[in-house]
Amino acid sequence: xxxxxAALKSEIRELLRDRNAVLLAHNYQRDEVQxxxxxTGDSLGLSQExxxxxxxxxxxxxVHFMAESAAIxxxxxxxLLPREDAGxxxxxxxxxxxxxxxxxxxxxxxxxxxxNSSAEVKALSDICCTSGNAVNVVRSIPPEKEIxxxxxxxxxxxVRKVSGRALTWWxxxxxxxxxxxxxxxxxxxxxxxxxxxxxxxxxxxxVVEMADAVLSTAGMHAYCRRSxxxxxxxxxxxxxxxxxxxENPGKTFHIASRTLICPNMKLTTLEDVRDSxxxxxxxxxxxxxxxxxxxxxLDAMLAVPRDAA
Length: 309
Prior knowledge:
It contains 15 helices and twelve strands. By secondary structure, the chain is of the alpha/beta class. The strands form three sheets. The protein has a four-stranded parallel beta sheet, with helices on both faces. α2 links the parallel β1 (21-26) and β2. The mean pLDDT is 97.
């Protein structure tokens, strides 16, 4: 079995060379997929890094909206999503027509869209945000403006609290993070009383309130590298543990709940990656009219100073 796994990884590396391809893996992917990836990270960061490469092909081990983001930022490259059925329930909770309907009723509102959304929804937005920069993005908006955040209600609730800005939001959520409860966190903390609790802002507000630090996945990696603490409880999808443990061999990491597993993130296997490269499919494309408008919303986000007040 081990020999078969090594042969499969070797075959993938050979195909990557032949196709001049770069292999991206999100922090929530299976351990073996992260292990063989050229770049691991969060969704937008992966697309940005891939855009800097000279690769002709991007193989995105993640979910559909992530591959769309890569296609938005690298229109000259071929973007492959090994599992076309790997979707995001939260991204699917709002559609382009639904957001267009809101915009018609609230023409003066500034629509702030989490990058965990479809290209169609991004294209109807004024500015995008990540979980790491959402507070700064909202603070950068003129105070007299009405603000509407989509699609994640939990991220919006956290941003409203931290930024102090009045805003409303779409009633979407991540089913995986939503499963993290006060009872689960309390139980894990009881088992590991000295550990710091790190929580993603997609978690319910009552859980976020319990955290020692509220961080994006990239933020968790940076925080744990810098921290002098030796033990952490992690409140996000359990795939993140692979890199945390690899990068911090002297530290101990516990998942806050065994329910923190995203079935869509776990769909992609090494066999899927091999087959995708061999067939050069499925290809993810974003129509140019949508791509340009979605990129404008991403560019607006990137123009926000990190210390926006």
